[in-house]
Amino acid sequence: MKQNLQRSLSCLKALEHRFKCYLLNFSCVFVKMPRKCCVPCCRSNYKTETTSTTTFGFPKDEELKKKWISSINRKDFLPGSTAAVCINHFDEQHLIWEYRIPQKDGSAHTIERKRPRLADGAYPTKFPNQPHYLSEDLPKTRKSPSLRKAEEITRAENQFSEWCEADNIKSLNEIKENVAEKVKDPWQHTVKENSIFIYKIETSDCPKVSICFQILSNLTVNIFYENARLDTKSVLGFVLGNDLKLDKWTKFDCVLSHLNSFEAKEMSVNQKLSVIKILLHELIEADSENDYSEKLKFISAQLTLAFCKKIRYDSDIILWCANLYFRYPSAYLLIRKTGSLTLPHQTYLRRFTTTLSMDNEDNIHVKYLKEKGKLLKEHEKLVNLLLDEIYITPKLDYKGGEILGIADNSEECVAASTVQTFMVSSLFSSNKEVVSLVPVKNMTAEDLLRYTKRVILHEKFSNYCEFGVGNTI
């Protein structure tokens, strides 16, 4: 019994010894201590240090390994399997801190490493705790041509983006803050609440403002030359762009440079014509009830017709010409022959003297109204119907196989004495159009009602206009 007990105790002691050995081996595997740096005078990863330092083992290549041993300057040193050199002795260009993953488009995706690795051919060169002559300053590595080109492109794009951002003008207040620095002699400026005036004053004889441009709160520009307003698009359209806004400082400098040498002789015929039209429009708007306002409107319309490439007559001109032609055809032809005024051909006027056919899809005037109706906005299609009467000389003409001038309201073949005019005028725009001219004689109320209904209910006008309910005719 006693022998069995002793044998059991010896077995327990053997098991205890084996368990302790197992625990020791386990701690050696999973609780591995950091390697100490083998460079003289370096204390990295020693017990006195509170932080751990990354270390690198000696390379397997014999030539590079000899270079490592020679660099650390340790006499009769033969590195073992655990010998290592810490990161403090390597130059930054020998350390790789990121993963580079090539992409299909040729670029590379980079991921930062937790611990760096050494580049090929790296060796220790920095020894801060030893004499300075033992350390080596490496020359900067030359980047590959493709990498240098990519960096130059990126740098240029960033610089251009920064320049574009600095070139933008965000508001009128930004111009107010910088206008004193931007505007130099001979230019002067005056700042108002909602605009800025920049101008030049001539003092050769009587002081006067030779040229001026106004910047509004929405950054659009008005130009004035010799006290006359110019068309901004024709003068500065090539600088400001389609929106005609002064929204960049480069545009601001170009405007100053261009207008500084601007002279009237540089203006084209169309630009001078625009100045005249603007002045006429300002005169008309200033007092539209004066006797001369209608004359100015006629002059403005004639100026436009005289220089436009594709002539298009407005409704007022057509009515005036029709009134003159149907009353005094010989006088109309004589005026037109002189070329003093731009007037429509008599054939064009005679097209309006027939009533609108309900079934005639080829009527040129109907086609014109349908196409124009497609260009109008919805609010512009709400119109009033205007009626007028033009007195003409009763006369029948035979033209193109047809007898013209017959009264539409008579069953007999009698010459018309008046032309009943129907015109639509938009309530929310300046758009006016003649829709029908009907030759009549001794027209009654029933005739007028019939013609008016014919115009209002004409389905071809549905795309052009909508007659307001309750509007006065």
UniProtKB/TrEMBL annotation:
InterPro entries assigned to the protein according to its UniProt record, in alphabetical order: THAP1/10 (IPR026516), THAP_Znf (IPR006612), THAP_Znf_sf (IPR038441), TNP-like_RNaseH_N (IPR048365)
Example GO molecular function: sequence-specific DNA binding
Keyword terms: DNA-binding, Metal-binding, Zinc, Zinc-finger
THAP-type domain sequence ranges: 33-127
Stretch forming the signal peptide: none
Pfam families membership: THAP, TNP-like_RNaseH_N
Protein's UniProt name: THAP-type domain-containing protein
Source organism per UniProt: Oedothorax gibbosus
